[in-house]
Amino acid sequence: MRRITLSQFLVGRQHDGKINTDLRLLIETIARACKAISTRVNKGALADGLGSTENKNIQGEVQKKLDVLSNEILLEANEWGGNLAALASEEMDDPKPIPTHYPRGEYLLLFDPLDGSSNIDVNISVGTIFSVLRCPKLDNGSFCEPNEKAFLQPGRSQVAAGFAVYGPTTVFVLTVGDGAHGFTLDRETYTFVLTHPDIRIPEDTQEFAINVSNQRRWEAPVKRYIDECLAGKEGPRGKDFNMRWVASMVADVFRVLSRGGIFMYPRDAKNKEGRLRLMYEANPMSFIVEQAGGSATDGKTRILDLQPRGLHQRVAVVLGSRNEVEVVAGYHK
Ligand code: AHG
Ligand code: MN
Ligand code: MN
């Protein structure tokens, strides 16, 4: 079977009029940065990459060395290309406008440079998540100041989103709004090769992913749903369920894309808004999951329809196999 590379895939999308040159080059640049992060993650303890720094990010989480390094790799790769107006990241308090000595472009880029970073030191998959928006325009047609407000657009406005998983293989999943497509890093040619075209999430599933240690703090609808899953064949659902929890959203979502499943990080008495961040975790993942035929909700509202209030806002997430997400949403009504 003849396989195409990410570059060939993107050129094809450009010829079809789905993306313009700037967006193509922006995605190429992000993918190149992901390759560099993958190489760095792979070195592990050999390159003094493990462990924490002395700093905390705006969410009060201690930054791992690789969180900071991955952030720098993405910043350096994307700053000078001329495709962006500003960048925002989990590891930066405020958005960073493109410095004036570089050309500015029409897009805004958000990323979680290293997702699942608590797993770095124990050699479990981690990844990178990104979301691309258009910089809003003023009435006179010029681009507005690329500040935090410019970023606060609902997820349905995303023009592209994707993520990489640095696991046994490095994979890169992408959507530009016409399906979700997966690429595998060929380490001999150092290129991403299309290995998972047109990913489709099965509508039904018997596998859930949730951090059960929060159970006592969950809201009633989530408690009910998981209790019924655990009751198995003898319970109201009439079937047995399996459970998985990697604690790296990238790996959990890649599994859902590969064989179906439901992934949940609900709000609870401790994380009142939820745990995951709307703009650079929930939105890009929800865009990809919907493009693969799945659904994503905060329990009550489609995630892609939520109006963001802040760059680092948290949100409850229930996503994956469509019929199963519907069951959970139904319990919230
Ligand atoms: P990050 O490492 O970017 O802060 O994100 C970690 C997220 C997500 O990847 C994962 O699903 C979740 O946090 C794990 O949370 P718990 O440690 O509470 O299980
Ligand atoms: Mn994350
Ligand atoms: Mn992170």
CATH architecture of the largest domain: 2-Layer Sandwich
| Helix residue percentage | 25-40%
CATH C-level class of the largest domain is: Alpha Beta
- In CATH, what is the homologous superfamily of the largest domain? Fructose-1,6-Bisphosphatase, subunit A, domain 1
Q: Which spans of ≥5 residues are poorly predicted at pLDDT below 50? A: none
Q: What would you call the shape?
A: globular
**Approximate strand percentage:** 15-25%
Provide mean pLDDT, rounded. 96
Structural class: alpha+beta
Distance between the termini: 48 Å
Order of helices and strands: HHEEHEEEEHEEEEEHEHEEHEEEH
Strand order of the largest sheet: 4-3-5-6-7-8-9-10
**Gyration radius from CA atoms, angstroms:** 19 Å
Could you please say which CATH topology of the largest domain applies here?
Fructose-1,6-Bisphosphatase, Chain A, domain 1
* Total number of distinct structural domains: 2
- Give the ligands present: 2,5-anhydro-1,6-di-O-phosphono-D-glucitol, manganese (II) ion
